[in-house]
Amino acid sequence: MSSPYTYTPVPPEPSPSTRPIRGTRKEVWAWAMYDWASSAWSTLQITIVVYYITVIVLPGAPGTYVYGYGIGISMFLAAIASPIIGALADARANKRTWLIFATVLGACCSAGMALVPTSLGWLVAVLFFGACLGFELCWGIYNGFLPEIADDDSMNRVSALGFGMGYIGGGLALLIAIVVLQAGHLFGLPNSKDDATVHLRIGLLITGAWWGLFSIPTFLVLRDKQKPQTAPLPVFDAAKAAIRQVGRTIMHFRNYGTLAMFLIGFLFYNDGMQTVITQASVFAERELRMTAGELAQMILMVQFVSLPGALAVGKLSDWIGAKTMLHIMLAIWVGLLVTAFFVTTKTQFWCMAVVLALVMGGGQSVSRAIMGFITPEKHAAEFMGFFNLSGRAASMLGPMLFSTTLNTTGSAHIAILSLLVFFIIGWALVLPVNIAYGKAQAGKA
Q1: Which of 147-151, 254-258, 369-373, 399-403 is the least confident region?
Q2: How far, in Å, CA of 266 to CA of 232, rounded?
Q3: Is 7 inside any structural domain?
Q4: Which of 7, 122, 151, 298 is deepest in the core (most CB within 10 A)?
Q5: Residue 229, domain member (yes or no)
Q6: What is the pTM for the complete model shown?
């Protein structure tokens, strides 16, 4: 995500001494608010949604495949679409419009799963895929706003603030779902021990409503700071131009070795992270027989413990450097995977979840900050689209590998250990990355 182009702010900066703040406090909080909103899906997906699909709608192997492959394929398609959408957004300066589109798709499909009869498993699977696709698409667009509202001095803190807000928002949405699961009978709902379906479907409605409603402040406040780069074109012509631009960017990657190396490394280790996060609930349900309520309580703990962890990573990154912080995060992730292979009790799983909570957003947050450092501001959406591409293109492999290994061997322990390869390869690739040199390549040094 580097470019030879030089960024020209709008309006031009008169001098460093009179340089305005890149993003206002209101804009920063509105940006972070989207993490609060969309995290309802990422949190309830690994508690309510996974249990609903793999136990209620499509029990056994069919549900495991639908869940794993639905996540994987949506990541792959989003990876293909993200750089094109990013280029279109750069050309028309309309990231906000695309963010609204992805949000409506994801939130409506999430709520729609609750309205479909459980007998229509195929339709539930389609809506699950649509919700996953909307969630994956929104991140490349959302990340494109980061270089517009934060400078190098505040990049780590603003990125960490977004993750922290996500943990709070996702945690509160999950808390409401837990109340429905555990105490729904007090409000006239069937007892969840006898019939969990109604409670789970209400949880799906909560997910879609939370995501959609709490995104409104982001849509009302955030605006693209760049002017359109080209005169407005019909969408089809603009898409063709965007594809050509993406092709040129890929051809120019040889000029940005630091960026290319980081993106490829991120592609691997992020795949491992995302798969652990999305499939840990499958591990707990298959190996430890945890119920939806127990999963929800554990993830609720993870959400709130993750908040101080994400904020601490942002602060520590300022002190010891983003690169050093990334190495620490990857070392802890590798240790967690090895430990998971020996976990056989719920108590052990809870202990491991506490450690995971402290580092869950750390690796993602510091990676996003590094990308912000080496991303040229003029092409923020397009190059952040490539960041999304590197994070999602191969991210289909992790969930699919986990699901296939689980159903082939019958052991979630082996399935979780198989993910270790992604961390080892990714870590080896980012080891020689020099952030200072990457900044120079992006025209920021």
Answers
A1: 254-258
A2: 34
A3: no
A4: 298
A5: no
A6: 0.72
